[in-house]
Amino acid sequence: MKVTIIVMGVQVVGRAFARALQQEFAASQAAARARSTGGQQSAAASSITGMSLQEAQQILNITTLTPEEIQKNYEHLFKVNDKSVGGSFYLQSKVVRAKERLDEELRIQSEQTQKSQQNTET
Known about the structure:
With 122 residues, this protein is mostly helical. The chain is built from 5 helices and no strands. The radius of gyration is 19 Å and the shape is flat. The mean pLDDT is 81. Belongs to the TIM16/PAM16 family.
């Protein structure tokens, strides 16, 4: 009986570890693709913030990068996860980091748009 429980526990931990490795490998490949396709700034922002663009979009439930949608979802999730209303400080901090990452991505996109407009004018 005890052996069965131990074996089942090891299997669960093993699957979780394998899943974590797969996710890390996928994130690593995504970062490499972003760097190779000219997304050096975006990849650098992911590295600095410790959060990928995709993860930030998932946290804030954002499909398109618009300042209005980001702000609306951020405010809602920040309030819902406020510790004073029974929320989680950890989740609230993830919401803040996700907003920071998305704001940085908007800044990067804005800079790239301005550079491309300048290049077409000259």
